[in-house]
Write a structure and sequence with these properties.
This protein is an alpha+beta fold and 244 residues long. The protein contains three helices and 16 strands. Helix content is 15%, strand content 42%. Helix 1 (2-11) packs antiparallel against helix 2. One of its GO terms (cellular component) is cytoplasm.
Length: 244
């Protein structure tokens, strides 16, 4: 189009010189538009971010003791920890400290840490992915899961799973929490419901009984439980919560 406009202008002589300028301007605009489209600014949509990627990382900071709470995940001395419990108190001369029990998210090990009042820590950002439980590798004491999206296998040491490992069923759907590309813990997407295989009367005054569950575990429960009942297991303490 630009070349046609310029050709017509030249044939018509000097009277058409403004048209030549217009044609050249139009040509330059088209070239610029093509360049912008090539680099992705015009007429294109940004590519979707890869699964689990952090497009714009926002760092959250908490201050002790006001920001402290159970379950909080913090970066302490370069390693990720989860606060399991804490207690804030004042010592002599009004100096406040916060004593905590924390879990190393990479090893599952528990330890005690003390924080000074006013100290600040970065909150750990994690992601959850859906997975299915595949099998237990007795040789190296690891549990193997499969990502339901990319079908990659994920291995986790038994120490990371804790009591949750006792309630896994083959093919069961769970969620795996990841930090910095590493698996750190799991949670069940659905309620944990199991059947009672048998009942043992404890003779206790409160009437409670011991229930042998289908996964081989024994749990204390209310006296009205009977063989064949289905019970809901609390994911907070892994005890019988109620009969279904």
């Amino acid at each position: 189009i630009a070349m046609a406009l310029a050709g017509n202008a030249r044939r018509d002589g000097a009277a058409r010189r403004p048209a030549v300028a217009l044609a050249l301007l139009f040509s330059a605009a088209c070239s610029l538009c093509g360049l912008l489209r090539t680099v992705g600014f015009v007429g294109t949509s940004p590519a979707a971010a890869p699964r689990g990627s952090l497009v714009a990382r926002r760092v959250d900071i908490i201050q002790v003791p006001g920001g402290m709470k159970n379950g909080l995940k913090l970066l302490i001395d370069g390693s990720p920890y989860q606060v399991m419990s804490f207690l804030s108190k004042k010592q002599g001369k009004g100096v406040a400290i916060t004593k905590t029990k924390v879990k190393d998210l990479f090893t599952g090990a528990l330890s005690d840490k003390t924080f000074a009042s006013g100290s600040k820590y970065e909150v750990v950002e994690t992601e959850w992915v859906d997975a299915t439980y595949s099998y237990y590798n007795e040789g190296d004491n690891t549990y193997v899961f499969m990502d339901t999206v990319n079908f990659e296998e994920m291995e986790m040491k038994a120490d990371l799973l804790g009591p949750a490992a006792e309630w896994l069923t083959e093919g069961g759907i769970i969620e795996v929490e990841k930090y910095d590309g590493r698996q750190i813990q799991i949670r069940f997407k659905d309620d944990v419901i199991v059947k009672v295989e048998s009942i043992v009367d404890t003779g206790r005054k409160d009437g409670s009984v011991v229930a042998l569950l289908e996964n081989g575990l024994k749990k204390q429960g209310p006296g009205y439980l009977k063989e064949g009942d289905s019970v809901l297991i609390s994911q907070d303490n892994w005890e019988i919560k109620k009969r279904m």
